[in-house]
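REQUEST ID: PR-0412
SUBMITTED BY: lab tech R.K.
PRIORITY: routine
TASK: structure prediction, single protein chain
INPUT:
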Amino acid sequence: MSAETSSKTPSVAYLNPDGVARAWIFMAAISTPYLLWLLFKLQKFGWVISFLVLVLTPFLINYFIIVDTNASLLVWAITLIDWAVFLFLLKNSYNTWREPDFKNTPGSDYR
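STATUS: complete
OUTPUT:
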């Protein structure tokens, strides 16, 4: 008898979903302050404000205002989706930060 066990073997997320969730929280807790520090250092204040509006505001609303468990889970999901969209948009726009579109215009501080 031969059987392929690779597709029948449970994944790490199935065996330990709490550990996977804690790993994601740990990565977010480390990467988010570093990301905000980089955005502040690069003077991308629009991105910092959009992070505050998209990610931090629903988190704080969920933490302080929402009492219902189902509503809380919904807001957590919305916050997670907003965080993923924020990172996706940030990743796609980062390549245009190096060189401005109009680098030869008078008054440009591009070096």
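NOTES: Residues 14-96 form one domain.
REVIEWED BY: pending
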